[in-house]
Structure formats: C-alpha cells, structure tokens
Design a protein that fits this description.
Elements (H helix, E strand, L loop, with lengths): L1 H11 L22 H4 L27 H4 L7 E7 L2 H12 L5 H13 L7 E4 L4 H7 L3 H13 L2 E2 L3 E3 L11 H8 L3 E3 L4 H4 L3 E9 L3 H10 L6 E9 L8
Parallel strand pairs: 1-7, 2-3, 2-6, 6-7
Antiparallel strand pairs: 4-5
Length: about 240
C-alpha cells in the first residue's frame, strides 16, 4: 500500500511541494522550489575559471584557477549552476536516493541557461552508471537530467557511454587517485560513433566534485572524434575559497 501511495504522490502531488524542504509552495516561483530555499542557492557567477567554471577570487585578469592549471582535463570547459551545499545537496540526494525521478525535469529547467555558455552544442550525452547502481536507484540521474535538458533545448541526446563496473569508493581520494580508480571502468558504445564524430558534445552530470568522472568520460568519448567536448552539472564543489 505504501508503494502505491508513493507512486500516486509522485504523479499528482509533485507540483505543489518544494524539492528541497518539501513544504507546499504557495508563492509564485519559476522553478519547483520555494522562495526561501531558492534564496539559499549559491549560484555560480562572476569571474569564472574557463575550464572548471568555478568562481575565481581576486583579479578578473585571471582566467584559469590554480587547480586547473595542472589538471589537464579531457573536456574543454565545464559550467555548473550552483555550489553543492545545503539546498542543492538536499535536492540531489532526494533525486538519487529518494527515487524522486521527476526532480530531473525541474533540475534541467534550472540548468537550461548553461547550454548557451558553449559553442553550438550538437549532441548531449551523460555520465553512465553501472547496472548495479541503476538497479539500486531505478534510473540514472544524469541520464534523466540530460534527457530533460535535450527536450528543453531541442538537442538530440545519445546514450554514448557504458559503465562497466564501479571502482572503489571515491570518497577521500585525491584527484589523481580518483582518475586512476576510474580508468577502464567506462567504455564507448561503438554504434554511436557516427553520431558523435565532428560534433560539439555536451556531457551532463549532477555534481562536479574534482572533475575526474567527467574527465574519464571525455577521454573515452574522444575515441569517437568529436569536434569539442564540454560538460555541465547542476552543482559543483567549491575549489577556490577566498583567502582570509
């Protein structure tokens, strides 16, 4: 009975509740989030690193942050809507672990402006998950966001990458260790090579942590000979903390 009610709630009650706090939305708001929670979202703007998309504190003459100078990402640049704290973290966790699949549509609506940051995106793809993770969650959150983003932006979405297996947990690992941990876990689907070759591709994910997962996806995607590879996420961790 509980599962039946949960499905009913997902279908008919989602337009009235804030994705973050769960309270009924009474005020007019563009996205599925109450004004109180929306005001707590730390939107990323200002002088941004042209690679990772993080805010750079200090002079506007700096175009690449210190972290990215030595990162050598396989993608050209990333853009993220907001920082991964409080409200965005709640939304992502509810999407991934609370089986709120319908959140993907609202997240994509919030992310829509990110697509215009890049040069004429031809194709959208997404970070894959292993069959084990898909079974646990019931879906791939990055795929759902990408599909919704494709519909909103009128850009084709292709299932280009496959996650073969999960490496050990990424928590606590350095960027170098994360990259080593991810090597060999993702492969390119051969049948989509012609859909990627010579095109500008955007890889979508929910959160940018160190960029290691997106880097590995972009590295594998390069085998299909795209013109350029960009990435975007709903949220990201903050690299460049202001100096006291």
């Amino acid at each position: 009975m509980k599962n039946i009610w949960s499905k009913f709630e997902n279908l008919f009650m989602t337009d009235h509740k804030c994705m973050s706090c769960g309270r009924e939305i009474k005020d007019k708001t563009k996205f599925q989030i109450c004004n109180d929670c929306k005001n707590k979202i730390n939107v990323i703007n200002g002088n941004l690193c042209k690679i990772c998309g993080d805010e750079i504190c200090g002079t506007e003459n700096i175009k690449i942050c210190d972290r990215c100078k030595n990162s050598n990402y396989a993608f050209m640049s990333n853009r993220s809507l907001c920082y991964y704290d409080t409200v965005p973290a709640k939304i992502i966790k509810k999407l991934k672990y609370g089986k709120r699949k319908y959140y993907a549509k609202h997240i994509a609506e919030m992310m829509q402006s990110l697509v215009t940051c890049f040069d004429n995106i031809d194709v959208i793809t997404f970070v894959p998950v292993s069959s084990k993770r898909r079974k646990e969650r019931g879906f791939n959150q990055a795929e759902e966001i990408a599909k919704e983003l494709g519909l909103i932006s009128n850009i084709s979405v292709v299932d280009a990458l496959e996650k073969l297996y999960d490496g050990k947990t990424q928590a606590g690992l350095s960027q170098k260790e994360r990259r080593e941990n991810l090597k060999g876990t993702i492969k390119l689907k051969n049948e989509i090579k012609q859909e990627i070759k010579g095109k500008n591709v955007l890889i979508v994910d929910d959160v940018f942590t160190t960029g290691s997962t997106l880097h590995e996806c972009a590295s594998v995607l390069q085998k299909a000979e795209p013109k350029k590879i960009f990435t975007c996420t709903f949220a990201k961790t903050k690299f460049n903390m202001p100096k006291n």
